[in-house]
Write a structure and sequence with these properties.
Strand order of the largest sheet: 3-4-6-5
Radius of gyration: 17 Å
Order of helices and strands: HHHEHEEHEHEE
Number of strands: 6
Largest sheet: 4 strands, mixed
Structural class: alpha/beta
Shape: globular
Helix content: 25-40%
Amino acid sequence: MGLPAALRDRVAAVHRGSALPERLRLYDGWAARYEQLHRRGFRCLHGVDGSAGMLEQARSTGLYQELRLCVLGTEPLPAPAEHYDALTVVGALGEGQVSSTVLPELLRVTKPGGFLCLTTRSNPPNLRYKAELEAAMGQLEQSGAWQKLLAQEVEYWERATTEEESTQGTGYISGVVYIYQKCPVPHLEEG
């Protein structure tokens, strides 16, 4: 998936002074594995997971500077406000997993002008959740908290484990990648 020129310009503005071509290529493909992030120059990776076992697996890669146990949506993220330039949530936003009520907390830890890449499934068992998630995203956009830059449907997002999960009998689950940019805090005029 290629990015529209206007989105490429926004990404470029955020990464001023860094290895820009590599960073733009990352946004063009949203790396499937975090090793790709590291190869592209991202050296300050933090992670959270609700499973100590998954955190140990992440720690064994040597890629992360910080890993914390945290159950998304049930407790605050272990980071100060406006801390991250970019935030990704891949594979957690779905029925029976992380509630869409987590969105304001994700925004809290993202810097103004920072990017959020979120994903969810589009298969039948997740359609109710997807509609709820998109409604919450729309409300945040209408309130001026963030701006949607991209919503990209991906037909073969991941392999289905059951026929019920499968999208139209393909053996795969379809999904959506959303990219949002947190809106800058407006400066108040003194006077």
